From TrEMBL:
<feature type="domain" description="DUF4440">
    <location>
        <begin position="37"/>
        <end position="142"/>
    </location>
</feature>
<feature type="signal peptide">
    <location>
        <begin position="1"/>
        <end position="22"/>
    </location>
</feature>
<keyword id="KW-0732">Signal</keyword>
<protein>
    <submittedName>
        <fullName>Nuclear transport factor 2 family protein</fullName>
    </submittedName>
</protein>
<dbReference type="Pfam" id="PF14534">
    <property type="entry name" value="DUF4440"/>
</dbReference>
<dbReference type="InterPro" id="IPR032710">
    <property type="entry name" value="NTF2-like_dom_sf"/>
</dbReference>
<dbReference type="InterPro" id="IPR027843">
    <property type="entry name" value="DUF4440"/>
</dbReference>
């Protein structure tokens, strides 16, 4: 079953977030600037918890999600989908992580396998995601996300 292309974001974050909620080490953000690692962790948790206020803070106003449908989503559209009732990630595994950082930008991504519920319907996906981060006014925000399914 194909799910809304926003769902990758929650899936990609859930494994890291679940570890954080269990009091375990959060993701592999070693080697990243401390403020970027903190922002990435907060973003993971915001997606896992469907935390509207944190998503508002961590996504840039000009955020774009380029998903599998060929249609771009805005920040408002992404957040509306992310906090929709009946959506819950129950399993996530992230592999093949990619991390590229420069003074005011970064790319964080990888492969994700996930299962859960999207508007009450069960799903299982495998895909590749990339988040592009920008440091603006001293604060890291996601400005662009690309996701595509992998068979």
């Amino acid at each position: 079953m194909r799910v809304s292309h926003w769902k990758w974001a929650i899936c990609a974050a859930a494994l890291i977030a679940a570890s954080a909620q269990a009091g375990q080490e959060v993701g592999d953000y070693s080697g990243l600037p401390q403020d970027l690692a903190a922002a990435a962790t907060a973003y993971d948790l915001a997606q896992f918890k469907s935390d509207r206020s944190e998503l508002e803070r961590l996504l840039a106003d000009d955020y774009t999600l380029a998903g599998t449908s060929g249609k771009n989503q805005t920040k408002a559209e992404f957040i509306a989908d992310a906090v929709a009732p009946g959506s819950k990630t129950t399993y996530v595994a992230i592999s093949q992580q990619v991390r590229k950082v420069w003074s005011n930008g970064a790319v964080l991504g990888g492969m994700v396998d996930a299962k859960g519920f999207n508007h009450g319907k069960a799903y299982a996906i495998r895909g590749r995601f990339v988040d592009v981060w920008a440091k603006r006014n001293g604060r890291w925000q996601v400005i662009f996300t690309q996701f595509h399914y992998v068979q």
